[in-house]
Amino acid sequence: MRDIRIIHQFEESNKTFIIAESVKKYCKCPSCGIVSDKIHSKYTRKMFNGSLDGSPQEIILIARKFKCKEIFCNQEIFTERFDFIDPYGRLPNNIIEIIKILGLSTSAEKVSKIMSKLGIKISHDTVLRTLRKLPKGLIKLMNPLLILE
Fold first, then answer.
1. What is the pLDDT at residue 149?
2. CA 48/CA 117 separation, integer angstroms
3. Which tens digits make up the pLDDT trace of 16-27?
């Protein structure tokens, strides 16, 4: 997770909380692509991460909203984007990839239990929603392999 700096870290009731903020000086407008350094406001995003010892981590990310400098752009204000998490996402992309791999090889219920052991509490419905986002061709390709096992 580059482009962020940890401000504070503490433990409370067997859970690690990490407060972090972006260190980027500017961001690109997702609509027009113009770079802006005009900060409109700040907001917080919650991310959930796990660890190999099974202790859950909650990352509170202080992100920013920027004003677009292009006067003809439809989007006056846009949010900061990060390469390690999708917009509106609560799980980092590397965790999503693990869920996809496990979800294609076992049941959603088992994936939920495995992730819980790693400190990431997700439901089997979350696993199914993640798998539904995969390209249809990939799932059809994987299906015969799952049946053969």
1. 39
2. 14
3. 999 999 999 999
- Is residue 80 within 8 A of residue 64, CB to CB? The reply is yes
With vertex at residue 130, the alpha carbon angle to CA 11 and CA 146, rounded to the nearest 5 degrees, is 115
pLDDT bin (cut points 50, 70, 90) of residue 147 is very low
The neighbour count for residue 44, using CB atoms within 10 Å, is 10
Neighbour count for residue 4 (Cβ, 10 Å): 18
103-116 residue pLDDT tens: 988 899 999 999 99
Query: Which long-range contacts link 72-77 to residues 24+ away (Cβ below 8 Å)?
Result: 72/32, 73/29, 73/31, 73/32, 73/34, 74/31, 75/29, 75/30, 75/31, 75/32, 77/40
